[in-house]
Write the structure tokens for this entry.
Amino acid sequence: MAVLIGLQGSGKSTFCRRNLAATHVVVSKDAFPKARHRQRRQMRLVEEALAGGRSVAVDNTNPSPEEWQPLIGAARQHGAATVGYWFPPDVPAALARNAARQGRARVPEVGIFATLGRLRRPRHVDGFDRLYEVRIDGRGGFTVEPMPTDDRPAAEGQPATDDCPATDDRPAPADRLMVDDRRAAGFRPDGTVRVDEGD
Ligand SMILES: Nc1ncnc2c1ncn2[C@@H]1O[C@H](COP(=O)(O)OP(=O)(O)O)[C@@H](O)[C@H]1O
Ligand SMILES: [Mg+2]
């Protein structure tokens, strides 16, 4: 099971077509924009593909654990591994690529910002068996890099390393506030604890 994760206009469908479509059943809610119960319909297609022993690629924005968990759950039930493809948000680029699209392929900009607000960087602790970071390489192609497994609980005396925000220009999502909380609670990055002077 491949799960693509990224803003509208980040290149997911292009990546999917070029790299996954030959080997995976591609499921996307874009294929039934008007249907009621799109989530249910998507899950049915995912289940059918997995039950038939096929690999499936889910090509939506899939911004958060709310979208990932049912997919990962279905994959596990069928003994399939889940691979996440993370397209880090580049808002100006996504807006520009969206603006250049025609007709229904162009989405209202507010939709991109709504997705940005929900977007979380996937981590192995979320249940992904493998994670790759995918970027448009500026030459018409993509770079694909395995994401480090830096999301396990910090080892004794080691700082947690997963404190870089998905973008630099917005507040850290809730799942990254822990490191700041640790600092506020007196933990230094080197693992020692600050003891406040005074009372
Ligand atoms: N690797 C790439 N290099 C340059 N342009 C790309 C690349 N991948 C996609 N695009 C362009 O960006 C736009 C959005 O791509 P698309 O794959 O539809 O994104 P998404 O599915 O994430 O919305 C399209 O116009 C597409 O032609
Ligand atoms: Mg798409």
